[in-house]
Design a protein that fits this description.
With 262 residues, the protein is an alpha+beta fold. It has two domains: 107 residues, 2-Layer Sandwich (Translation Initiation Factor IF3); 95 residues, Alpha-Beta Plaits (2-Layer Sandwich), CATH 3.30.70. The protein contains five helices and seven strands; from the N terminus they run αββαββαβαβαβ. The strands form two sheets. Strands 3-4-2-5 form a four-stranded antiparallel sheet. The protein has a three-stranded antiparallel sheet with strand order 1-7-6, covered by helices on one side. A hairpin with a 2-residue loop joins strand 3 and strand 4. The longest helix has 30 residues. The radius of gyration is 45 Å and the shape is elongated. The N terminus and C terminus are likely disordered.
Amino acid sequence: MNRAANISPLCRPRRPTAPHAGLRPVAAAFVLAIATASAHAQPLPAEATPREPVVTVSASASAGVANDRLRASLRGEAEHASAATAAAEVNGRIAKALARAKGATGIGVQTSGYSSYQVSERDRPARWRVSQTLTLEGRDFAAMTDLVSALQAETGLLLGGIQFSVSEETQRQAEDGLTQQAIRHWQERAARAAQGLGFPGWRPGRVQVQTGEQMRAPYPVMRAAASPAAGGAPVAFEAGTTEITVTVSGEAVQDSRRASPR
């Protein structure tokens, strides 16, 4: 009897397996991780060239511009034991002044600041005080002077104050010329800054142009001098000037391609 033929399949020897065959996926992942780490470990590129130096430069140009606009404020006031009586007096004065002012050529007129309140003082009966303001504005100083004097004499209005200024058209023309001057001054300062820092040239970066004016304060007029009782003399005006300034400020980028000789 052949014993070999009766050997059970369970007793057959197993086929030898390749060593570490079950570790192949892990090894592959490990190799991939090493490759990835190596890629990240590559030297970084050199930093970009430093930005060119920037110098902030400011320059301005100013001029005194003759005022060509006049604004005058006149006030009607009345006090009476009766509020209606005081109001009627002020309303009549303002109405008469409005009619007179509207007949003047080239002069703007408006009313504002109407107020009515009761005044109570010790040892005096209560009374009502009413007031309203009439404002005139124009560029013809002679006509304005005549009108203000006439309104004081004819209606009893009191001159509260006058203010001179530069008209929008005149201001715009002055700013246009001053802007060119301020830009030239700014360019000169930028060039001097580049020279002092040792750079042969420069170019403008962000630049701003700012305009403005320093308004002259209102010229107060004393009530005694403004009243008709002062002899009826016409109001004297001195227009003066307004300082207008244009400022240029911004970046002067220095040329770093080559150094200038010292």
